[in-house]
Design brief:
The complex is a heterodimer. Chain A is built from 2 helices and 5 strands, in the order E-E-H-H-E-E-E. By secondary structure, chain A is an alpha+beta fold. The termini of chain A are far apart. Helices cover 24% and strands 40% of the residues of chain B.
């Protein structure tokens, strides 16, 4: 299935959104698919950041074992406020 | 503020552009409190040996407000304070404030400790990202703290 992710922080270098083909139904599967998508598009630096990032649905942070929810998702890289 | 939340003893939110620093003490004033501590986080002109002219803050508004509210709740349960926290979204130039925090308490130790802990926790918990702008208008995203827990 195709999943559209809102990009935040350094992932905005890809644009405001990125669409990923996901084989599987969990957030872990989405993580694997996003890393693969970025490596295919010569974005090895961003692919490395995916491992330290979290996915969010609305105002809820998702865990890797969670099913992929049917709503707009976002990818959140490591935070750096202040 | 473009988004904000309140608790019994706290108020937090996000603002477009730099934070207003004047009158910060009024946000937490209380006739029973004899101490007010304030922290202003200000954009500086260098970082890691590189010059900077501004920082462009990216924010996930819903999650950031949720995290700020949770942080205020937690701190007000730990300290007998009134607490105010505000963070910027968008462009903040050198010398302007990107985050302001104020806490009041009956005596100084609680207010000082609360403000110190508030900025430490904000930096590692709230979904905000820094895009640092150089004098030649090039930019770089600054690394931070992972929110991942699994």
């Amino acid at each position: 299935m195709q999943i559209e992710l809102a990009c935040l922080g350094i992932f905005r270098e890809l644009g405001d959104h990125v669409v990923v083909d996901v084989q599987g139904a969990t957030v872990h599967d989405l993580r694997v698919a996003l890393k693969s998508h970025l490596l295919t598009h010569n974005e090895a630096g961003l692919a490395a950041v995916v491992e330290r990032s979290v996915f969010a649905a609305g105002d809820t942070l998702l865990h890797d074992g969670d099913p992929i929810p049917e709503q707009t998702l976002a990818i959140l890289p490591p935070v750096a406020g202040g | 503020m473009f988004i904000e939340a309140n608790g019994q003893r706290w108020h937090c939110g996000l603002v477009d552009g730099p934070c207003e620093t004047a009158g910060l003490d009024l946000q937490v004033s209380d006739p029973a409190h004899g101490a007010i501590a304030q922290f202003l986080g200000v954009v500086r002109d260098h970082n890691d040996g590189l010059e900077a002219t501004a920082v462009d803050y990216d924010v996930h508004p819903e999650l950031a407000l949720k995290a700020l509210s949770s942080l205020c709740d937690e701190l007000c349960n730990r300290y007998p304070v009134r607490l105010f926290m505000q963070h910027s979204r968008g462009l903040v130039r050198v010398g302007e404030a990107s985050v302001v925090i104020a806490a009041s308490s009956a005596h100084r130790k609680d207010a000082l400790a609360c403000v110190s802990e508030a900025i430490d926790l904000l930096k590692v918990r709230v979904p905000i990202w820094k895009r640092e702008i150089a004098p030649d208008d090039s930019h770089r995203w600054l690394d931070g703290h992972s929110l991942r827990q699994d």
